[in-house]
Design a protein that fits this description.
Helix content: 10-25%
Strand content: 35-45%
Oligomer: single chain
Shape: globular
Number of helices: 3
Low-confidence stretches: 2-27
Mean pLDDT: 87
Structural class: alpha+beta
Number of domains: 1
Order of helices and strands: HEEEEEEEEHEEEEHE
């Protein structure tokens, strides 16, 4: 058998072995963060008037969606923060848009975690995000500044049981109303049998702290209205909690 015959046998065999090694490598585990939605401890359900906010209105939620971005993780005991740059679209009542995958190196005990509800000024421009359905659907009108909605919270409300039902649409956008969130003393770990970490939005906090939002006095539609948007944005600091 000549040298070329040996090569014809050895080369395919070595490629096969190399390919098997790659397929059996163990990849670093990832941590899946579930984004959940509730109203003062009760699971958020679509289109039911069973919820009540601080101003005394019974209300329902038909649509709840927005963006999270620019996560910063500050390790316990000091050290440089770990960054997770990017934009994550969320939508309640849709399991396909209620989770974030953390890289393997972002795990452990953190003194604090910072992130934003909304986008930074570089992304919050016309066509600043990929032109998929979600981003096109979240576009903020160009005549009103362009960019994207940071939040869409829509549904119906009534102030007394014998009154008719009216609609509301709490929309936030433009760079002035990007919201910073700070969470302290958070532990993120690989998903245990009982489930991984959860980032929970309490919808009632949009209407409560520090500004009580009144659908009648403040307006049931906020888009393009500086006063209502400012009130809602000032409450954004406390709408998320880790569990």
């Amino acid at each position: 058998m000549n040298q070329y015959s040996w090569l014809a046998i050895v080369l395919p065999l070595s490629l096969l072995i190399g390919g098997c090694r790659k397929e059996t490598e163990t990849l670093p585990p990832e941590t899946l963060i579930e984004i959940g939605f509730e109203v003062d401890g009760h699971e958020l359900e679509p289109d039911t008037m069973r919820f009540r906010n601080a101003a005394g209105f019974s209300y329902s939620v038909t649509r709840l969606e927005g963006y999270l971005s620019d996560f910063r993780f500050y390790p316990s005991g000091g050290g440089d923060p770990l960054s997770m740059d990017g934009v994550w679209y969320f939508r309640a009542f849709d399991a396909g848009h209620t989770s974030i995958v953390l890289p393997a190196d972002i795990r452990g005990h953190f003194d604090s975690i910072r992130f934003a509800i909304g986008l930074d000024s570089a992304s919050n421009v016309e066509n600043g995000l990929p032109a998929n359905w979600e981003n096109i659907h979240m576009a903020w009108p160009v005549p009103m500044g362009g960019g994207y909605h940071f939040l869409k919270l829509e549904g119906h409300y009534k102030s007394q049981e014998d009154q008719g039902v009216s609609g509301y649409a709490m929309h936030l956008g433009t760079n002035a109303f990007r919201m910073e969130v700070l969470q302290k003393d958070v532990v993120l770990q690989e998903e245990p049998p009982g489930g991984g970490p959860r980032l929970i939005m309490n919808v009632n906090e949009w209407f409560r702290d520090p500004e009580v939002y009144d659908f009648v006095l403040d307006g049931s539609y906020s888009m393009g209205q500086a006063g209502p948007m400012q009130k809602l944005a000032s409450n954004g600091w406390n709408v998320f909690q880790w569990q």
